[in-house]
Amino acid sequence: MKGIAFFVEGATEYDFILQLLQSKYAFWKPLPITDHVCILDSTDNRYRARISNAASDSRVKDELWDSQEKLQEIGYSTFLCIRDLRGEWKKNKPKTLSDVVKIKNADSKILKLNNDDNLSLYSILAVMETETWFITETSHYERINPKLTRPFIEANIDNIEGNVNPFVCSPKAIYEPAETLKSIYKLVGLIYEKDANHRRRTIRALDYNFFDQRSCGKNRTRFTARIDSGKQIGTILQRQIRWPRYTRRSPRQILRGIN
Q1: Which of 177, 205, 233 represents a domain boundary (last residue)?
Q2: Average pLDDT over residues 44-51
Q3: Domain co-membership, 10 together with 107
Q4: Does residue 187 or residue 55 have the better pLDDT?
Q5: Between 140 and which of 122, 197, 205, 220 could a Cys-Cys bridge form, CB atoms 3.0 to 4.6 Å apart?
Q6: 3-class SS at 200?
C-alpha cells in the first residue's frame, strides 16, 4: 500500500484535503488517530493517506521532519506541506506577496536537503489564504445559494471586499480572501466564518474536478515548492494515485456503487 502524507497548517486545509480525497479519489471515511491526525485508505486498498494538522504555519515543516523517517519505514513516499501566506515574520512583520519568492526559494532548499530518490516532497503555499482557492472555484456559488449567479455577483462588485470579481481576477489580486468570500456570501444574507460549520459548507460545495487541471506543466522534480494554486495539489495526486485502467468508472462512481 502506497502512503501519501499531508502536513497542513490548520483546520481549513485539513478539511479541504479530507474532502478532496473522498470526493475525487474515493477514499473511505477517516480513522482518527489523535485530535489532529487521521488516516484513510482508498477503496481499492492500494493507497493510504495521512493528514496531520500542525495548527500553525511555523510547525508544518517541523512535523514533517519529526515524523518523516518513521512514516517512510511503513510505506509513505510522498509528502506534501500545505500552508498559506497569512502570518508574520519575526518582530511582528506581516508577510506579503513580495515575500512569495523568498519563501519559495527557502522551501526548495530545505526540501532538497533530503536527498532520497524514493521520496517526493512538495511545499504548497496558498496566497494569501486557502479561501483563495474557494473563491476561484466559481461554480460552487450557486450550490451555496441559487441566487449567487455570475450576473448577480458581477452586478454587486462594489459590495465585495476589494472589489474582487471572482470570475476574472488573478488569485494574487485577492488580498483578504476570507473577507472577500464572506462579502460574496453576504450578498444573499449568508455568513462565512472560519468555524467548522461554515468552512465545511463551502468545502462540500466545491467541484473537485476544478483542482485536477494540470497547471504544473511538465515539471516532475522530486523537490518542489509550488505557489498559489490549489490545482497543483490535484496535479500531484493525479501523478501519485493511479486508478486501474480496466475500469472506466470514476472514483466517485466507484464510491456510489459501494454505498
Answers
A1: 205
A2: 91
A3: yes
A4: 187
A5: 205
A6: helix
Rounded (10°) CA dihedral 106, 107, 110, 112: -110
Both 240 and 223 in one domain: the answer is: yes
Select from 133, 107, 99, 120 the least CA-distant residue to 229: 133
**How does 156-173 read in b/e, with b if 16+ C-beta sit within 10 Å?**
eeeebbeebebeebebee
Q: Is the pLDDT of residue 74 over 80?
A: yes
Separation of alpha carbons 23 and 252, rounded Å: 6
Cα 241 to chain centroid distance, Å, stands at 16
| Residue 188: domain span | 132-205
Q: What is the pLDDT of residue 100?
A: 61
Residues 8 and 91 in one domain: yes
Count how many domains the chain has: 2
Amino acid present at 103: I
Instruction: Give the confidence band of 48 by pLDDT, cuts at 50, 70, 90.
Output: very high
Q: Which residues contact 181 (CB under 8 A, 6 or more apart)?
A: 131, 134, 135, 192, 202
Q: Looking at the structure, tell me whether residues 102 and 221 fall in a common domain.
A: yes
